[in-house]
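Key result, reporting period 2: structure in, sequence out.
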């Protein structure tokens, strides 16, 4: 670990309270807590460095103060018992974790400090597309949360984004080692498997070969690809009904790794309800999936996708207006209602015919996926009224459970 003084490594303190004495006390408490976190993580890492086998963990993840687990990681399941023996000391309490797809160790240290290490079960180490796909990370985190609820382990029950992301990254490193596949190739395999499943599941919805309907999101047993293939199907079906012009341009905002634009480019016009999409823009703030998409679009007849680096909370006037603008499960990640509504208005200004937003309907912001606000159907309706000239149409379209698409988290407004 670095030998630089702790004071130089801590982020600049911004007092929350105006009272000068309380602000100083708060600062001192913060520094003491940060030192304790770093000391705890350093102790565990020094133990890991003595092991004859590899344990992948979050060496470069410095966001200690915002996470449930100070240190997280993953290893081969054959090494789990040895890791448990090494970590079990007078200062550390080690508890076994046992889920359907993983086993693991919950490490408790002094105070409320804790760590977590997981190992995939051997039957869960595979490149099969039903195992290695975009749903894997969600399965990992929800199984751990469910185990925490069942056994009264608050740390697992409150698993959050800052702990969950490096945990899933460590799991990918273990898979790479166990399968003998370079990490970059493993990531592409995961991406390609996810894409193939999106295409299969979309066609199942399109041709009535699926019984899956939208239900409560982010619950135990939640399947990311199954859920969003249904979201995409409902959106494309609505676009084909509302936007009569042809061909159309489409902008997918917050595209992440661009699975949705790639899906559109891989489906036939018949699959897409005879939609002719001439131009697709995929935008995100620093993330685009461009390399993955270009590697995946092997067919010569596939039209390209344009990628734009875009911060939707800033001025989007340089982004060309598109017939259809879509933003799926992004608004809940913004820090507050004001910034989220401001972003929605920005996008409405760049919409020619139809704006579609999808948000999760959940009782509390989901900590695992870094949500900062909640949405209700009434809130969606209120926000639609704050878009000049917008006609809310998601109340006029229904999922097969009888609920309107607004009730399922869709904000669809047309000019």
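The corresponding designed sequence is given below.
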């Amino acid at each position: 670990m670095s030998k630089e003084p702790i004071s130089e490594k801590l982020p600049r303190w911004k007092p929350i309270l105006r009272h000068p004495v309380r602000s100083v006390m708060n600062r001192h408490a913060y520094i003491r807590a940060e030192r304790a976190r770093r000391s705890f993580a350093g102790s565990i890492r020094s133990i890991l460095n003595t092991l004859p086998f590899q344990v992948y963990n979050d060496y470069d993840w410095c966001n200690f103060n915002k996470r449930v687990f100070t240190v997280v990681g993953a290893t081969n399941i054959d090494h789990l018992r040895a890791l448990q023996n090494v970590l079990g000391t007078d200062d550390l309490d080690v508890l076994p974790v046992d889920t359907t797809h993983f086993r693991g160790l919950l490490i408790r240290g002094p105070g409320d400090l804790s760590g977590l290490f997981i190992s995939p079960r051997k039957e869960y180490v595979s490149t099969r597309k039903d195992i290695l796909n975009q749903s894997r990370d969600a399965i990992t985190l929800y199984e751990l949360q469910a185990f925490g609820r069942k056994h009264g382990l608050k740390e697992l029950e409150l698993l959050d984004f800052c702990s969950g992301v490096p945990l899933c990254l460590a799991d990918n490193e273990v898979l790479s080692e166990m399968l003998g596949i370079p990490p970059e190739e493993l990531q592409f395999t995961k991406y390609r498997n996810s894409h193939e499943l999106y295409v299969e599941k979309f066609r199942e919805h399109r041709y009535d070969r699926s019984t899956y309907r939208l239900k409560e999101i982010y619950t135990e047993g939640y399947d990311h690809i199954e859920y969003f293939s249904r979201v995409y199907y409902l959106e494309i079906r609505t676009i084909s009904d509302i936007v009569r012009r042809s061909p159309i341009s489409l902008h997918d905002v917050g595209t992440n790794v661009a699975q949705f634009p790639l899906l559109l480019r891989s489906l036939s016009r018949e699959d897409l309800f005879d939609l002719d999409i001439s131009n697709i823009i995929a935008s995100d703030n620093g993330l685009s999936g461009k390399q993955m998409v270009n590697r995946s679009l092997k067919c010569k007849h596939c039209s390209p996708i344009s990628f734009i680096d875009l911060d939707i909370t800033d001025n989007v006037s340089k982004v060309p207006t598109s017939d259809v603008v879509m933003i799926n499960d992004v608004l809940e990640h913004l820090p507050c209602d004001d910034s989220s509504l401001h972003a929605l208005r920005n996008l409405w200004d760049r919409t020619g015919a139809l704006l579609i937003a999808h948000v999760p309907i959940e009782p509390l912001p989901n900590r695992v996926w870094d949500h900062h606000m909640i949405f209700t159907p009434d809130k969606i309706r209120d926000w639609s009224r704050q878009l000049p000239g917008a006609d809310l149409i998601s109340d006029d379209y229904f999922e097969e459970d009888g609920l309107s698409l607004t009730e399922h988290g869709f904000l669809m407004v047309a000019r």
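Residues 365 and 371 are 5 Å apart (CA to CA). The domain at 189-414 is CATH 3.40.50.150 (Rossmann fold). This case is discussed further under Risks and Mitigation.
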